[in-house]
Structures are given as structure tokens and as C-alpha cells.
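[Solved] Which block belongs to which protein?

Original post:
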Amino acid sequence: MNPKPRPLPTITIAGVGLTPVGEHWEKSLRQIALEAITAARADAGGLAPDALFVGNMLAPSLSSQTHLGVLLADFAGLRGIEAYSLEAAGASGGVALHQACLALASGAIDTALVVGVEKVTDRIGPSVEAALATSGDADFEAVQGMTPAAQAALLMRRYLHEGQVPRDGLAGFSLNAHANAVANPLAMYRRAIRLEDYRNPPMVSDPVNLLDASTVADGAAALVLTAESAAPRTDPRPRVRVAASTVSVTALALHDQPDPLALTAAAESVQRAYAQSDVTPDDIDLFELHDIFSIYAALSLEAAGFAARGQGWRLAAEGAIARGGRIPISTFGGSKARGEPGAATGVYQVAEIVLQLQGRAGEAQVPEAKVGMAQCLGGAAATAVTHVLSRVS
């Protein structure tokens, strides 16, 4: 365990940009990314970034493209700036944001542009599953046919067994996500579902059914961040500060993790975030967690201190995760209903929290939200990135 992290200097999110999550067959990776970048820069009043940080996982496998930092900087008309691409599986977008925060905190740059982008529909079928499986241990998991869905199934089966949880005990996470997505015009699935719907769909990997699993799709999200000295002075909207940015990792292979249900990296990352931002779980008004499978939603709530071990599912069953509940999650639909944009997830989460804290969430608004937390996961929670955001004016 690392020592208590130092507090971050004032880093403000000046602009956000989001694209719809879906199957964008007619658009390339660079086009989707440019849409988000253009929207974020416009939202930030046209601020010019000093550096670009790109989060992506699947482009080498599905789009035959590496060197995304240069590609997107060039396509966005930003030649001459620093540009990097970062990969940490499903946590790539969060890692890109973390690196941007470190660069701003160091004083090396004044304004950063972060974009998370994923283009899945360049390929279909087994090639997509094979690409997703690279988030695990290639030698000891992927080669044996282990996929992210199979990993989630192992975790879910053990969770249901240890806690004597009803077979439909995790249904509340899917119901909540789909109910919230109705108010999100960028969501892939804008239709509420019923408990009866959850009980009847086909299995993906027993006991994970179709409504336990999110759909991996195309999407891009972007953020413009500034140091205090570069923050716009004329923006009338409430300012949103990055109060904490932390990363932790554990064993890559699920079988090497000493207690897979504990989500060790997630717990360590969130504890560092609490320490860095000087908040507790009681201070968090909403939590955008990585619900790529419903079991990760339950385990993430437990790792973050909102529920005891084996009890996270009860928060969904009792309605505590709804927009008007104790700890709202997936307020724009989460990965389950917004759609899972792979490496872009961590950037979508933070952008959605910014909209909540600034009162720009429309019908998805969480009342009186002042502090939000986002956490994205890579692989079977082998990497965890946590951000705490606070409204400061």
C-alpha cells in the first residue's frame, strides 16, 4: 500500500464532449474521436490544449491502428502539441485522464485534452471476442478460451454462492441502468426493463445472462482540463475540480488474485482517492462505477465502502442506487444501457459527473449533487482508476 497521496493542485474541467454510443458503421475511429474533441473544446470556450492524452484499447486489434496520439492530434488540427496514447484495457480512458492530471499538477502544461475512443464495429464476431480477451492473461487465460464474460460468470457464481444471493439478486443493477438511460439521448438502449425481462433472457455465460452484460460499442468522450492559472474567468457555470486521481493494480490473471471478490485494486484505488480528496463514502453524492457486467457493480460498491462484503446487491434490490437514493449509480445508464465504449468508459463517466455537478444533466439530474466519484476497471478489475470530482462554485 502506497503512502497517503499528496493533494492535487486545483485542476478544473473546463469542457466536456460526448458522442452517442452505438454501432457507427459509417464513421472511422478518427471521425468519432474528432466529434468528441470538437464538442469538448467548444464547451471549454475554444481553449487550445498543450497536450493530448488518448485512451484506447482495441484499435491495434480491430482497426489495425497504433500511434493514436499523433493520428488524432493531426486530424484535430493540433500538430505541434504533445500527444500520447495510453492503454490499460477497460481502464484506458481513466489512465489517460490520470496522466493528464499528473502533467497539469507538475506544472509542465497548463491545458490538457483527454479523449477516450473505441471503434468496435470495424470487425464482427469472434475477432471482437478475441480482441476483448487480450485484457486477460494471454498465456494462461485467453489461450484456454477465457473471455471477459467467462471471468464475470466465475465471479458471479462464487458471489451468489457465498452470500446465498437469489438468482435474480443482481437484477436491480440492470433495471436501474435502463431506467436511467431513458433520459440520456446518447444512450444505446433507451428503454426501461422489468424484473420479468431480467428473468427470461438467454445466457451469455451461466449465470451471467444477456441483461447482466453490457454491449461493447463505438463511442468517444473528451475533456478539457486546465490548471488554475489557465481556467476561463468568464464561464458562468459552476466550476468542477478534480479532487482526486488514483490508480492501483493487482494480479492480471483472475486465478492469481488472492481474493477475486474483494476487488483489491478497486479498494486500494478508492481508499487513496478518499485520502487525496479528504472525503468519505458519506460525502459522495453519486458514483459512476464500471458495470460492464452486473457483478462488477455489486463488487465495486463493496470495494468503495458503500456496503459490506456480500451485501452490495442489496443496495440495488432496495433502491439505494436510484437517482433519488442514497448512492445513485449509472445515472446516464452506465455501461449496461448507455453502452460500453471500451477504453472510453472512464472518460464518459467523468464527463457525466461534470454534467451532474453543473446541473446540466436534464432529466437525468441527481438533486443537489456536489461530489461525484468515478471508477473504471481494466480486465477482471486488475487495474482500477478512481476520480473524485467536486463542485467548487
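(Second protein starts here: sequence line, then its C-alpha cells.)
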Amino acid sequence: MKIFVDENIPNMTVEKLCQMGHDVMDIRGTEKEGLSDNGIWEIVEEQERLLITTDKGFAYHRDDKHQGIIIVRLKKPNRKKIHSRILQALSEFKESEWEGLTVIMRDNVQITWRSSEEGLFQ
């Protein structure tokens, strides 16, 4: 799966995703580091990548056409908790199910949307 990880996703998660065989784009350490949310969204759309982030602002794109969004929103985040919630979200859906899917991972619950044509389903 083609994945874009926002700058706030732990390196251990990027490494694990690569080990799992995913094509992971991480802009840390590149000229694109610090890119605006709009710039990130343009890359995600253009390259048809699933977006993984902790930035709740990307939830506004849930009704847009996209390859999937995972947003991790924890009360007391740390890299291990973020890592765990991302892997959990990825394990719950097949690669073919991610198109148009937005998953917000909280501490103990998750919220899941399909694009507006199908509406909220979980």
C-alpha cells in the first residue's frame, strides 16, 4: 500500500510499515519538511496515498475522494501509543477497503467514516 506519514508519526512506525512491505513516504529530512496541511493533502491526492497523521484538521477531508486517512488523537500521546493505534487501525481493514475510509483512533474507541455517499457506518 502507498502511505504518506505526517511528520508527527514515530520513526518506529515508519520502519514497521516498510518492513510490512508498504511504500512509505516520510518527508522528514527532505526539502518538503514543514509543508503546510494543504501541501501535504496535494501530495496525498496526487500520489494516491493513505494518509497517517495526528492532525485532526485532516478530518475535514473525510468526504473528499482519497485513498484513506488514519488520524490518531490521544489524550496523552507518546510514540508507543501512537504506533500501537496505527498498527491496530491498519489491521482492521484490508488494503482494498481503505479507499474513501477515514479512521480516527482515540484512546479506547475509534470513529470510522466512509465518504459522504455512504455516510457514517461505525
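Accepted answer:
You had them paired correctly. Confirming on the second one: DSSP finds three helices and six strands in the chain.
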